[in-house]
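Morning, I've got a small favour to ask if you have a moment. It would help a lot if you went through both lines with me. I owe you a coffee for this, so here goes:
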Amino acid sequence: MQSPTIFRRVNGRRFFLLVALAMAACTTVPDKLRGTNPELPPPSEGFARLVFLRTHDSKLYLLRSAPVYLEDQKIGDIPYGGWFQREVRPAQYRLTVRTWDSPGRCELVIDAKSDTTYYLQVDPRAENFGALVAGDIAATVAGANVWVALATGVTLQAAESYVQACGGLFRLYPIDEASARGRLALLEPATD
């Protein structure tokens, strides 16, 4: 028979895991959350346009914005179901999506050409979240306290990220214009 102290510790771990899962995956979002279909004119003469979007396809990390960096300068945050655009001079750029509180990053190098629009999608990486949860569960089963369980989860999350070419909470990748325009019609412009 378990003592009351042990029982409270186990319930605390389960509570922590349930809260983490609920924050990451559960919410109520209106089914018809729609923006306006943006009419994107061509980029300004001599510039390239970068359009970043994040769909409603995954509710993972829905309460988190995805910070986007251009050559290590933050250029914006993409909220769940949002998009934003930036114009840049023609050049080769390193784009990065990373968060301050989670290990890993996803980088993409783009050769931006004048008078061209590039569509880039940001999605949550379920593998990264899975590593965090797996580490927490393994440590909890082994009898560790909540802080050790959390540290184990973050360690596995870091290990998962660092063995990937694109690690971290979010991934960044180019998509074609037709797909992007269809998705943009369902999204809200991000506010600066």
Summary: The chain has four helices and nine strands. The radius of gyration is 20 Å.
